[in-house]
Task: inverse folding
């Protein structure tokens, strides 16, 4: 799997098998063919009419990126169809070598209409449906923990990409496979990622209201689209507002993730959406074992107080202090619980809000309302 | 509840599968039913495709029959089987398609969907046996009717290229081997399925430009008034 040079001659790949996509598949390729000598790899051959001049520089950077990323690079190679080599022929770039989705991810799906079964790869599309819908297809009904496992992997990939300035743009139901028996994921079509923004990519059902058609897609677009995909997979719901409603009643131990998702999905300022790294972190930290906590800081509850926090910049819980809500707009705070997201155990620490000096105590009754909201 | 950042209503493609079930289709009825089952099953297996492309099945022979009203096939628990017999009255089919579009489009809008231009995929193995099919077709695709559909046709057996070109607005395909009916049916429905899957990804109606086992029939040129 790793034995391919960054640039490979088509002839060196040996004979190609039949295309796994039809002649009318369209897009940038004329076909995606397995290698007879290595069925785990695919040769995606560009359609010269649709992609006459591929961005060779970007493709080479993508091919080489995992080498520099340590564990993140390993994750990219295990959970995505990360490009292995640029394929050339006659001195021209004619395609890209990519890994096929692991066969082990395929599962038998039964038709709810005829009861007939078919073993195939399953798009994450199906996970964005309720448990009972999935069970009717003869698959194990994924519980919340299964859904969380998938979402963690998706968020981790998104965080790695955004952390390296890579824009995917194509987060959608169709571009990730889900292994329903072990909750693995495999993201495809990553070979067309860009470094920095790129021309608009329309993704049905994942339109970012702050990246309208015609506007270049960038990291903020990825934040929205991936957050929407993750929220859908977590809740099994489809419509954005229904997803957000569903998140509002999600288990308390997932409130940290809920708040980041809701922030990204409802922000009216694309530049202020919380980063995918933050989303990945809160998903990683979420655990039902901490069912009494409301976030990653082991805060067990927020008690109403008669006045402002004991010390500016600190909120006391038991004998310790934790980070207070990071927002100062009360209307936003009503929906946004504390945002502490570090793994460190509960310790006394300073409140690092940059604008702490400008903070003013909330109005009387605020903490009660907040508490009621979270309970 | 409504949250900041309005998302656009989701598009829906009303898809009408119009099947010739006249007597001459009888030798192929098993293949027709089997392939139809595969198509509906496949769409039902893909929530994103089923949400995007709602499907209606209309059969026609001496009369037209609404086999499956326009629906999100995820909710289906059974698939209708068709039988074959009778004449090949195209006009009946065109009238029923128009009638159903006038019912279905408002209903989809009522559900909050934005509705793409309906698309008709028609399969026939013969020429029309009625006299008024041209008038019916003209009414179906009348430019002044805002809900007029795209029509894509597939023919085999005794289907006539000249007629196919007259009842198609986008593409028409005629089987290379006129008498390989079962293959033609399989390829027709397979291509229909691919079209729906691809269209659901792009949000546009992505019609095929070539279909295995079929040759493309040239359509009449359109001229500006």
Result:
């Amino acid at each position: 799997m790793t034995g391919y040079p960054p640039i490979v001659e088509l002839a060196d790949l040996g004979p190609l098998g039949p295309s796994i996509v039809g002649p009318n598949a369209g897009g940038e390729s004329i076909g995606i063919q397995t290698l007879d000598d290595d069925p785990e790899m695919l040769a995606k051959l560009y359609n010269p009419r649709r992609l006459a001049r591929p961005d060779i520089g970007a493709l080479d950077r993508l091919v080489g990126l995992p080498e520099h990323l340590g564990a993140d690079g390993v994750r990219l190679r295990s959970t995505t169809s990360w490009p292995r080599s640029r394929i050339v022929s006659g001195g021209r770039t004619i395609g890209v070598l990519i890994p096929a989705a692991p066969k082990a991810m395929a599962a038998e799906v039964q038709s709810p209409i005829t009861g007939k079964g078919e073993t195939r790869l399953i798009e994450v599309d199906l996970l964005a449906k309720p448990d009972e819908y999935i069970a009717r297809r003869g698959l194990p009904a994924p519980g919340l923990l299964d859904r969380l496992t998938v979402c963690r992997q998706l968020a981790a990939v998104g965080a790695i990409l955004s952390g390296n300035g890579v824009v995917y743009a194509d987060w959608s139901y169709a571009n990730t496979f889900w292994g329903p028996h072990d909750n693995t994921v495999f993201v495809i079509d990553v070979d067309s990622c860009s470094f920095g923004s790129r021309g608009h990519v329309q993704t049905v059902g994942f339109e970012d209201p702050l990246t309208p058609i015609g506007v270049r897609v960038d990291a903020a677009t990825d934040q929205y689209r991936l957050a929407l995909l993750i929220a859908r997979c977590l809740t099994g719901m489809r419509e954005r507002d229904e997803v957000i409603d569903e998140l509002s009643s999600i288990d308390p131990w997932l409130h940290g993730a809920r708040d980041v998702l809701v922030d990204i999905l409802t922000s009216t300022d694309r530049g202020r959406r919380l980063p995918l790294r933050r989303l990945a972190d809160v998903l990683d930290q979420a655990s039902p074992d901490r069912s009494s906590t409301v976030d990653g800081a082991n805060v067990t509850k927020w008690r109403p107080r008669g006045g402002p926090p004991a010390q500016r910049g600190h909120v006391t819980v038991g004998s310790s202090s934790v980070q207070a809500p990071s927002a100062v707009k009360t209307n936003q705070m009503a929906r946004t619980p504390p945002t502490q997201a570090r793994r460190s155990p509960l310790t006394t620490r300073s409140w690092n809000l940059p604008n702490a000096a400008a903070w003013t105590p909330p109005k009387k009754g605020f903490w009660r309302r907040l508490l009621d909201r979270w309970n | 509840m409504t949250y900041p950042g309005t998302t656009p209503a989701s598009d829906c493609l009303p898809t009408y599968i119009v099947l010739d079930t006249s007597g001459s289709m009888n030798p192929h009825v098993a293949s027709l039913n089997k392939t139809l089952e595969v198509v509906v099953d496949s769409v039902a297996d893909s929530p994103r495709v089923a949400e995007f492309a709602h499907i209606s099945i209309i059969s026609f022979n001496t009369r037209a029959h609404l086999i499956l009203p326009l629906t999100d096939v995820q909710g289906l628990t059974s698939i209708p089987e068709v039988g074959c017999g009778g004449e090949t009255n195209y006009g009946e089919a065109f009238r029923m398609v128009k009638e159903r579009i006038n019912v279905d489009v408002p209903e989809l809008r009522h559900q909050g969907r934005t509705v793409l231009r309906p698309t008709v995929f028609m399969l026939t193995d013969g020429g029309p046996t009625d006299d008024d099919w041209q008038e019916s077709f003209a009414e179906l695709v009348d430019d002044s009717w805002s809900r007029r559909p795209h029509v894509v046709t597939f023919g085999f057996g005794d289907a006539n290229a000249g007629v196919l070109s007259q009842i198609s607005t986008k593409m028409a395909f005629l089987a290379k081997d006129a008498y390989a009916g079962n293959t033609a049916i399989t390829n027709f429905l397979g291509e229909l399925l691919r079209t729906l899957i691809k269209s659901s990804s792009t949000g546009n109606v992505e019609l095929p430009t070539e279909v295995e086992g079929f040759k493309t029939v040239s359509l009449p040129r359109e001229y500006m008034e």
